[in-house]
Amino acid sequence: MKRIFVWIFLGFNLCMVNAQDKDNPVVMTVAGKDIPLSEFLFLAQKDTTVDLLDRKSLANYVELFKNFKLKVAEAESKRYHESLNFSDELNSYKSQLRESYLSDREGEAEAIRKIYDRGKEVLSVSHILFRFPSVKVVSKDTVDVYGKAYETYLRIIGGEDFSAVGKALAADTAAVYEEIDYIFPLKTMKPFEDAAYSLQNVGDISKPVRTNYGFHLIRLDKRIEDPGRVKVAHILIAPDENALDTGANTDEALLKKASSLYERAINGEDFAALAREYTADMSTVHSGGEMPYFGPGEMVRPFEQAAFAMKDIGEISKPLKTRYGYHIIKLLGKADRPPYEEMEHSIYTAMKQGEWYFELFKSFEEREKKKFNYVLYPEAYAELQKLCDDYHPEDTAFYNRARQMTNPLTMINDTVFPQNEFAEYLRLYPFSAKSYSGDFLYDVFRQFVRTIVTELEKRTLSDYHPEFDQLVKEYYDGILLFEISSNRVWNKPVEEQEKLEAEWIEELNREYEVKLNHKVLKNLNKYLKKKRN
Q: 330-387: per-residue pLDDT in tens?
């Protein structure tokens, strides 16, 4: 293994200096275990009923704290902490707690909110795609493709009609022309979506935009406010493959049957009953034709247009045709776009799993890079990027050349990482969905840096966040306290519990030695002031 992996996975040489014992003296010793003042204060200051500067309140708290620690000592003496269930619960908590420090919740919320706000508008666009020659492409393979895309861009802004040019290119070349009814956040490629939403006015055209498929020219055709969601029931009249009478499957016959059902429905017959008897949509037959709420872009266009065109709840559409057959639609409900709180988790999940990953966690990475004095050597990165002109980062030829390169690439926490150490990481973790070599390299490099700063944050949690160890200790003691208290007191009849608790406390005080550091307790005000400063 190269040094990078030893460094990351076996630990760091961290020069963090812990607070001196004089700033964190022992406040009491219970059953041979020293309790530092920091732990005593951490728990006391979480209890709003405790006034550490009031003599009586302090005395009461010392007694409660001592008894709490005696119960924990008893649980440890009975080896409660060695059970598998205890280890699993504690490790699960530590993992969740650690993850909460390995993120920037405010930054993530800002990224999620940006996507949510973007979704307040729905776009219609047209685009011309100039395809890459293969699935994986290097820089030299994209030059001609970009040239054709940019030449076309100049023709269009020079006055030629976008649609006419696109259709002509699609007919004569490998280009693709497409009109897209709806663009929604997180539903298409990130560069394409970013470019589409950046267009301000209907008719605006983007410069060439690179995605995994090639270069796109995008024209904004429509920008509308999100119309919300609708709920409908429908009856589908579709061809019957098992029909003996072939005339029953003609378009004329299907429309006649649909029109008959429409007349029955608007004359008062139960729509749900008609759907259960006649619909060809087996997914909604048992619900009387009822469908879940849906928004624009989720149904075939004629069906969707008819559903959103209806105004009054209970309104029934005339038969309309789609590729599935003839539909009769009944409007059951309308709803606004779900509020942010309802969509936050689904947006987070989508961003975390897709190419929006770096956007979601960007604020955390920037914070950690600043914290650990991240430095990039651009000349060294440019040398690696130059390899992308001829080789894809997944190719063996790329690695064979990159591993010979020894210039400093980046420095993090005063440790320098040369190009060949990143090359080794790239060989082992070539994780990117990008087809273009330069984009692929950039993705893996960002993940390389993220891996290092995240591991640094894990290793230094206690130094930068002393409350982490306190929270883990609090949870550790809490599990033990719950288990032993349940066995000794809480699972007994309620009327007996007070007496059992008192007898247990007396027993613990007899069995285990307790030493209080009265000097520290007497001068608690001094330590509190020092902590505040």
A: 999 999 999 999 999 999 999 998 889 999 999 999 999 999 999 999 999 999 999 9
Q: Which long-range contacts (CB under 8 A, 24 or more apart) does 165-173 make?
A: 165/128, 166/126, 166/127, 166/128, 166/217, 169/128, 170/128
Whole-model pTM: value is 0.76
Q: How far apart are CA 367 and CA 106, in angstroms?
A: 12
Identity of the residue numbered 85: N
What CA–CA distance (Å, rounded) separates 230 from 216?
33
Task: Name the stretches of the chain with pLDDT < 50.
Answer: 1-20
> Taking a C-beta distance cutoff of 8 angstroms, is the pair 70, 508 a contact?
yes
Q: How many CA atoms lie within 13 A of 426 on its CB side?
A: 27
The secondary structure of residue 178, as a DSSP letter, is E
Cite the DSSP H helix spans in 13-54: 37-44
CA 483 to each of CA 18, 75, 207, 497, 502: distance values in angstroms, whole numbers, following the listed order: 33, 8, 66, 15, 18
pLDDT digits over 411-430, tens only? 999 999 999 999 999 999 99
- What pLDDT score was predicted for residue 390? 94
Alpha helix stretches (DSSP H) within 388-418: 396-402
Residue 427: exposure state from Cβ atoms within 10 A (0-12, 13-18, ≥19): middle
| Tokens 């699972």, residue located | 491
pLDDT value, residue 456: 92
> In Å, what is the CA distance from 156 to each residue of 128, 161, 163, 192, 213?
11, 6, 10, 19, 21
String of DSSP letters for 460-524: THHHH-THHHHHHHHHHHHHHHHHHHIIIIITS-HHHHHHHHHHHHHHHHHHS-EEE-HHHHHTH
CA quadruple 101, 103, 107, 109: dihedral, nearest 10: -100
CA neighbor of 273 nearest in space, from 291, 258, 288: 288
Instruction: Count other C-beta atoms under 10 Å from residue 313's C-beta.
Output: 11
Distance separating alpha carbons of residues 81 and 332, to the nearest angstrom: 57
